[in-house]
Amino acid sequence: MTKKILTMSPAFADIIPAEYRELVADGPYGRDVGVAELGTFKELLEEHPLCAGCGLALALRIFLASLPAPEDTIVVGSTGCSSLVFPQAAVQNIHSLFGNQNSVASGLKRALKLRFPDKVKDVVVVAGDGATADIGLDMVMHSWFRRENITTIMLDNEAYANTGGQESGMSQEGTVLYMAPKGKNFPKITMPELAREAGCAYVAVCSPAQPRKMEKMIRRAILLAREVGPTYVQVLTPCPTNYKFKNNDTIARIKKLEKDGLFKQREYITPQAQEMLDKLEGGSK
Amino acid sequence: MQRVVSPEHLFFEAKREPVFITGSEAVREAIKRANVDMAISYPITPQSESMHLVGDIYKEGYIREYFRGENEFAVMSAVAGASMGGVRVFTATGGPGTLRAFELFSTWSGARLPIVCAFMTRGVNSPLTIQPDTIEMSYLLDTGIIMLHAENAQDLHDFLLKAFPIAEQTEVHIPVGVFADGFFVTHTRETIEVAPLDMKLPPYNPYNAPVPVMDMENVPIRQMRDPFVMKSNFVSYAAHASWQQEVMAAAERARPSISRYLGGLVEVENADADVLIVTSGTAVSISREAIQLAKQEGLSVGLVKVKCVRPFPTEEIRALTKKAKAVIVPEFNRVGWMAREIKSIIDDNAKVIGAPRVYGGMTMPAQSILAEIRRCWA
After folding, report:
1. Which of A119, A163, A222, B201 lies 20 to 30 Å from A169, alpha-carbon distance?
2. What is the pTM (predicted TM-score) of this model?
3. Cβ <8 Å between A88 and B226
4. Beta bridge pairs of residue B190
5. ipTM value of the model?
């Protein structure tokens, strides 16, 4: 998309909402701005309806600032808390159903390749842990098996948060949640390792506690998905509402999980992906 | 090398050649001429062969992208993604595959996607069956998709090809399902007429869509200020309700083009007869046979072939059945959804005879319809 498409007719400028005008004048489209520049440009996300202290809200703000080409990015979501945010974001977004996000993204990416053979259109899946690791697991993994050129981002709040706090496959073993009244009786699904085995060129685990690191991983994942193959980023986004911790303790909780060995940042990079990264990053990182 | 011609030319003016082919091959011939960008497949009997053949024409270059998905829910989702990305897309399924994918069909219409899908109808479990049965059509009646029911391979070919320009009109822009009775149509061979192979439909223009194409080539700014889904207020209820009304209205707005391309939503023979058979699909062919047998006994019976089930030809059937003393509705399913549809729209519905009903894979003997006809004179 060129900025021209976005620009309004001067005759309508005075009736266009302020946030739109700001986005045209000062948005991130076609500009090299990222997490370090937050606060100096108009962000893609205007307000959000999530709970105070929501890990998703923070992660999504960082995610949207990390997009390498927001003007050509389509986000495919799924049912869950994150789907409440995207109608208010200034990138196109598809919410289809619960769990089918990677199938929708597969069809979309292939369609856009046909329609824009000389242009990169980034298709990025952003969905929760329930959508990714439970109800949509077969479609997530098959998109990896097929080597679809899409990025899959899981916002992992370790529960079904939007339905009121039920156990998900990504909940920690032993945690008492709805539908796990005696505590979850199997371990957290090892999605990053499954992703690595299923054909992802790049896998990363991160959290919004380290925004610059998360940005780097998101950018790597999106850039590598264009050329090398499917990529997966798992972002820990604790939920104060359902896990009942104070809503200014979200970052502290991430740090505690890390300290307790229940959260570990990591990257898995295939040799081809590393080769591409060396080219993209000049071997500097 | 194919050249683009107008739908009218392809359907009505081009000189057609006879070919002796199966229903599955008729799908291939339609898709060859439909200028389809992408097709996504998944096997299920009795549909599989049609999507094998679509795969063959992808290899030959008639289609630009083709792959096998991992199940019908995933395939119908991928088809939705492709359609939202602005390409013309085709798939096919049937029976249990239809049910596995079911959640998608209403979202296709809700998202205003002009997807064309062939349904090779089959019975559903339990017990396990792979045999012909049209019960899945009953389940699909209220999903908002347009439903065309083919009697034979010629219909299957024609309806599929015509489905694209019907679906893709701005004022319609909802999916079209083309239904054919599994095995009876897909696996039998007949002579059908097809247009020359050097012609194809005009390409799909995604910017004719009444909803934004998901390609980031149009203004992407916030669809809404607050997502309706979590709001318990009048505006969000009204938005959802009016959207559903608009999808229903879109199907209504398809009537003129369905009528133009298919020559009416129904086809009628001997309309003035006292006894009418009203049905769709292969039950129409067997009804023709029964009508011939009745004629030999001096009994005059008319036939209404329903080609379009959604939108339903309500006014047509009301008018046609007004003077009839009996309306016989033979069907290939247990529930008799066609009889139910007809009963629901006419005043004197006691005259609707929902029989014979054949299911579980059996064929429908013409004599079983003849028995119903004889009863009308008894």
Report:
1. A222
2. 0.97
3. yes
4. B21
5. 0.96
